[in-house]
Write a structure and sequence with these properties.
It is a single chain. It is built from 5 helices and 9 strands, in the order ααβββββαββαββα. By secondary structure, the protein is α+β, with helices and mostly antiparallel strands. The strands form 4 sheets. A 3-stranded antiparallel β-sheet has the order 3-4-5. A two-stranded antiparallel ribbon has the order 1-2.
Length: 148
C-alpha cells in the first residue's frame, strides 16, 4: 500500500539515509520519529504523507502487509530498524504480548514475575501482574466495599 502510492523515490530516500549496524544487522533510521519508530514525510507530489520507514522497506522488499496485521520487530526489538528481515507481520495482540511490558522481570514493588507469582487477566496478555500485589489490591478493594 505505502510503496504503491509513493513510488520508487520513497525507498531511495530511505535507503540513502539509513545507518547499518554491522553487529546487529539493523538498518537504523537517523531521522524523524513517531512513537519511537522511524518516520519520513514525502513530497507533495507523492501525497505528502508521513509514513513509518520500516513499513516502506518491508513493502518494497517483501510485499504488502496483510490486512489486519502489523509489523513486529521480532528479531531486534529496535523500533528505529528498517531492515525488512527483522520484522514480521503479526496480530496486534501478538505484538503486544512481546512488547516491553511483557518482558518485565519484576513488578513495581520488586516481586519476581515468574509462573508461581504471575497473574494474567483472561484475554489480555498485557495485564501481567505480580500475584502478591494483585491479591493485596483485591483485599483493599473488598475492605473498602465492606466499609460502605
Amino acid at each position: 500500500m505505502v510503496i504503491a502510492k509513493l513510488g520508487l523515490s520513497a525507498i531511495e530516500r530511505i535507503l540513502k539515509r539509513i545507518v547499518i549496524d554491522s553487529s546487529t544487522g539493523c538498518w537504523n533510521w537517523p531521522g524523524a520519529t513517531a512513537g519511537g519508530y522511524g518516520r519520513i514525510r514525502f513530497a507533495m507530489s507523492e501525497g505528502g504523507k508521513k509514513v513509518l520507514t520500516h513499513r516502506v522497506t518491508y513493502e518494497y522488499y517483501v510485499g504488502k502487509i496483510p490486512k489486519g496485521l502489523e509489523l513486529d520487530h521480532a528479531v531486534c526489538n529496535n523500533p528505529l530498524c528498517c531492515n525488512p528481515e527483522h520484522v514480521s507481520p503479526v496480530t496486534h495482540a501478538g505484538n503486544m504480548a512481546r512488547g516491553a511490558h511483557a518482558m518485565k522481570a519484576c513488578c513495581k514493588h520488586g516481586h519476581p514475575l515468574v509462573a508461581g507469582n504471575l497473574y494474567v487477566k483472561k484475554g489480555n496478555p498485557r495485564s501481567r501482574q505480580c500475584r502478591k500485589c494483585h491479591l493485596a489490591a483485591v483485599s483493599r478493594y473488598a475492605a473498602r466495599q465492606k466499609g460502605r
